[in-house]
Design brief:
With 152 residues, the protein is an all-alpha fold. The protein is 76% helix and 0% strand.
Length: 152
């Protein structure tokens, strides 16, 4: 599983915390591409056939094992993404300002670029970035509060 899935709150900045979903999705995409490549390079055999002899059998067996391992990693990433998405949605929903919630949802849960966020919110990209900075301070305060409750 990824190291991004279980980082303690004490060591996470607000932007990093909110970016977990996107980073995990990027990692998942790369692993899915690799899995697809491995599958196209690995010949299939009928259950009664044996792979024997030399490098062909060894590399095929190695790729088959790697496919199984990668499939398990991918399943773990799907679970981590689901968990991170739920946590991020919950945190964003707890913010008092509806515009800030919309900005953070567009950026961190839907992957919008800054220009698209600004256009959607009818503000300049600079205003969107300023709003984002203020939102990160609020998120940091919420994470700090959550961290303090965990310590108690």
């Amino acid at each position: 599983m990824s190291s991004q899935t279980a980082a303690p709150l004490a060591s996470v900045r607000a932007g990093d915390y909110l970016s977990r979903v996107r980073r995990l999705e990027e990692e998942l995409s790369l692993k899915l591409q690799y899995l697809s490549t491995l599958r196209t390079q690995t010949p299939t055999f009928a259950p009664h056939e044996r792979v024997t002899g030399g490098d062909i059998g060894d590399s095929t067996a190695h790729r088959a094992i790697r496919i199984e391992e990668l499939s398990a990693e991918i399943e773990g990433l799907y679970n981590a993404i689901e968990h991170a998405r739920r946590e991020t949605e919950q945190l964003v929903r707890s913010l008092p300002d509806a515009r800030v919630r919309m900005l953070l949802e567009m950026r961190y849960l839907n992957g919008y670029k800054w220009d698209a966020i600004a256009d959607t919110m009818f503000v300049t990209p600079r205003s969107a970035l300023r709003m984002h900075q203020k939102a990160l301070h609020t998120v940091y305060a919420l994470l700090s509060e959550k961290r303090a409750q965990q310590i108690k």
